[in-house]
Hints:
The complex is a heterodimer. Chain A has helices spanning 28-36, 41-48, 65-82, 92-101, 106-133, 142-165, 169-183, 189-197, 204-236, 246-249, 259-284, 309-317, 320-347, 353-374, and strands spanning 51-53, 256-258. By secondary structure, chain A is mainly alpha-helical. In chain A, helix 12 (309-317) crosses helix 14 (353-374).
Amino acid sequence: MNQDATAPPAGEPVAPHGGRPLPLPKSRAGRWLQRRLPIDLDALRYYSNEPVPNHLKHWWWCLGGTPAMLFAVQAVTGILLSFYYVPDPSQAYESVKRVSTIVPFGWFLRSIHRWSSNLMIAAVILHMMRVFFTGAYRKPRELNWMIGIGLLGATLFFGFTGYSLVYEQLSYWGATVAGNLTEAVPIIGPYLARLLRGGEMVGDNTLTRFFILHIGILPALITALLGAHVLLFRLHGVTEFEFESPKLRGSEEKKTFPFFPDHVMTELIVGIGLAFVLTCLAVIFPVGLAEKANPLQTPPHIKPEWYFFWTFRWLKLTGLTFAVLSIGFFGFLALAWPFVDAAIRRRRPASELSVRLGILAVCALVVLTVWEAFATH
Amino acid sequence: MEADAERAVSGGGRRSFIVRVALMVGLGSIAASVGGIAARYLYPLKAIRLKRRIFLAPAADVPTGRGKAYRLPDGGTALVTDTGTEIVALSDVCPHLGCKVHYEGAQGRFVCPCHGGVFEKDGTAIAGPPAEEGKNLKRYAISRVGQNLFIDIEETIQP
């Protein structure tokens, strides 16, 4: 047997396992790069061009990529904002004011950052609803649902630490209320609150902690979770559904289309659309600056960002400890839902209880949110 | 029939080409805008320079033959010396690479600790890199009104 027939010429790149010669690109520049970056292009094409079901052509199925793109927007604008931000209670507000009023395009970047954070949270919620109501979290994708809940939690915490950094009245009193809520958690609460605030009350240490969380720990956590989320999604493949509508089902002979470039192209169109929407929002509704934090005076009407409205209303309707425990329980239930749903379906295979409970939960959250939005007290 | 199929394929090809070009243009414009905005945002605004004359000290306070340091409102320090023939106010910033010079009593001269630049009491560089480059200590303009000294300073305000 002639070994040399399959062996690559000396100095040519070889695939790591099996020693198969790597296919060389046609162009000279491509070959130059391939020798320095020995990637198996055939394998790359195989993994990236994976066929995905036709229903992915519909916009509802682009909501997973949307928060990821918005996260990229947050990373770029956030890095730029951190060039002028000073995480010190005596200077934080002034530094934000300076960015918003003096630094060229500062108002624009800050507005994009704020609007993008709101859209990111909305996109995460919509994506999660899509996954929930189509049952895409079921076996074997339970772990990815749990990672998704982790991403939701990290995104909300991102939003909270973000608006605390501005150091306006809402920042200070929001952090104070959050600290006291944490304190209400039985047993570990007081320790957790002290750790979060870096002391007994909101002060110098709190702002530094929130800053490090916002620009270091949470971005790293989200990047890692997002990586795991996408990896698991690609390993399992896209969930296949049985659709009654022929439009979603696709023709019998062609039920799939390639992930790359077709679906990536759709995502890029969504990205350009997002850039347009964000620019419009930032220009038409630029983010202002409220009154500076005053630890001596709580403003008469204080409300958190819209995504925490429901917790605020729930807190007003129930007692402190009950509210904290029930919100904790709700979070745990959301995390463990794939297993709860599996238990329900084991007993009653045709049960639609998950969908009904999901609709109920969404309605409750919407009612609490709208109630808080319009209530004066 | 075959021609129809061919047209459909070429039409699809053309359409996909247009979509690709449109995407490239869209993404390219976003990247260019973001790059331009980021560059303008990061590059500091031009500093504002304000010239003004301020009171320095009574003339009698200035020592003869050695530098006395006066802090100025622009953040700098003026080393003021009565040389016998005139009163000079020198900037304490070495013209070589910006270190702060100090008065060496034993030598009766100003010395830069970084690279050994040596200056006379009137600010003339006599040794080290500043002398080689012919760069003296910067002089502030001093004016005398009655028994008092005034100094002309230039403040730099970074917006």
